[in-house]
Amino acid sequence: MQTQESLEEARRVLRANDRGGFTIPTAGLYPFQWLWDAGFTALGWMRFDEPRAWAELETLFLGQWENGMLPHIVFHRPEETYFPGPERWGVTRTPPTSAITQPPVVATFVRSMLEQAQDQALAEAKARSLYPRILAYHRWFKRERDPENTGLVTVLHPWETGADNSPAWDEALARVEVDPALPPYTRRDTAHVDPSQRPRQAEYDRFLTLLEVYKRAGFDQLRLLRECPFRVASLLIDCVLHRANRDLLWLSERLGFGHEAEIAGWLKASQRGIEGLWDEEAGLYFNRDLVTGEPIRVGVSASFLPLYAGTASPERARRLLDTLEGWAQRVRYLVPSTDPHSPRFEPQRYWRGPVWAVVNYLIALGLAEYGYPEAALRIRRDTLELVQKSGFSEYFHPLTGAGLGGSSFSWTAAIYLVWSQ
Ligand code: 9WN
Predict the structure, then answer these.
(1) Would the CB of 50 count as within 6 Å of ligand 1?
(2) Is 35:70 a contact under the CB 8 Å cutoff?
């Protein structure tokens, strides 16, 4: 595909996945609106339809809970092709939603949409109306997921991290005992995608067991912080939230909301929390198991995200780049979702090895900001090349470049639009 054709094709993917105010990630496999997908997709829409881009975020917030939580899936209308759907989550609200969150990219993308908008009047009005809802969401994180002000958020489900079957969660998830009374279920994902590219059955049983834990706790977050058998600190959540708070602070100042001191307090704590995840010997940041308190010593693509957060010192940024260069010796395309030196690296299984365009975008942004434009460019080129070679796939094989998972995928199309224009 030539770039011009690919650009047209990327716009076509978003239009085809548009369900009127929200964009599904891909037909069949994911027929609802997902939180962080909506953020990236809005950035893509911004390149050719600004009102539609803002609508994506407004529609997402229709799912926000009264306590501020922004759920990871909003089930705007019934669809049978995905499991678990609204019945299994058992959340009684309209529209129905899941009961967990996802990487909170929204504040950061609202800022960049406001900065790049052609229609400034529209952008300012939309940012102003979204701001209080984003603030409520970030206050929820602080109040319900970090009540002791450790600077790290407690994550209660691998789905919250966005990197569902990452090897980082193996031990923490294995500790979850499968509910003997788990209601029977039929997976739908493996009807759409080759099972060798999806999580394993043992993981799904535990993913579903956790839903029953939440329901039994009446979705009471503070109770789940004590009782949930799966509790981790995730670099994807903490780094995305840290940057989102930097951008929320910027928005507060720019729009005159006056919450700068409160947000600055959160930033101070998360700066300390994230930097506490650094491992000097490995030259990387590690996720942490909050049940054992131990670092999870497996390198994953999120290990580079303190560059995106902006918390890393210049020395640590340099070490991260060295580590990334080591990874690049092992794969053709950056950035594999798991350290290719690790015995847990599986180049075609979902978050255990494949390259994801959205994570590449976050890492490249961080590298550029730390003064490594060439490394950022390498990641950007690899991503564009993958799309040109294999289309708008959900993720890609880091050795062969083959497209994996769902196709005609919204966030891959969005990143292509953002990066090639
Ligand atoms: C569960 C929609 C989502 C992404 C996640 C990705 C995958 C869902 C699933 O798809 O997760 O949320 O059912 O596999 O892991 O990052 O947001 O694209």
Answers:
(1) no
(2) yes
Q: Report long-range pairs for 373-380 (Cβ below 8 Å, ≥24 apart).
A: 375/321, 375/324, 378/328, 378/334, 379/334, 379/335, 380/419
Cα separation, 242 vs 246, whole angstroms:
6
* Ligand 1 center to 349 CA (angstroms): 13
Please report how the helices 373-390 and 357-369 are oriented relative to each other, as an axis angle in degrees rounded to 10: 160
74, 164, 187, best to mutate for ligand 1 pocket (most atoms within 8 Å of CB): 164
- Is the CB of 162 inside a 6 Å radius of any atom of ligand 1? yes
Q: Which residues sit opposite 33 in a β-bridge?
A: 74
CA–centroid distance, 159 to ligand 1, in Å, is 7
**Which helix (H) or strand (E) is 34 found in, with range?**
strand 33-34
Look-up of token digits 């069949």: 28
Q: Distance, CA 363 to ligand 1 centroid (Å)?
A: 19
- Tallying the residues shown for the chain, one arrives at 421
The parts of the chain modelled with pLDDT lower than 70 are 1-2
Residue bearing the CA closest to ligand 1, atom 1: 159
Please tell me the distance from the alpha carbon of residue 234 to that of residue 44, in angstroms, as a whole number: 26
Residue 44's domain comprises 3-181+188-420
**pLDDT tens-digit map of 46-93:** 999 999 999 999 999 999 999 999 999 999 999 999 999 999 999 999
Q: Point out the residues that are catalytic.
A: 164, 394
- Ligand 1 in contact with 30 (CB < 6 A)? yes
In DSSP terms, 289 is beta-bridged to 232
Pick the closest to residue 324 from 277, 285, 274 (CA basis): 285
Please, are residues 417 and 48 in contact by the beta-carbon 8 Å criterion?
yes
Which residue reads 């929204």 in tokens? 106
Question: What is the spatial distance between Cα 166 and Cα 286, in angstroms, rounded to a whole number?
Answer: 12
Number of structural domains (the chain) is 1
The alpha carbon of residue 368 and the mean position of all alpha carbons in its chain are separated, in whole angstroms, by 20
In this predicted structure, what is the pLDDT of residue 2? 61
User: Which residue type does 1 have?
Assistant: M
Q: Find the angle CA(112)-CA(117)-CA(119) to the nearest 5 degrees.
A: 150
pLDDT of 196-249, one tens digit each?
A: 999 999 999 999 999 999 999 999 999 999 999 999 999 999 999 999 999 999
CATH number at residue 8: 1.50.10.10
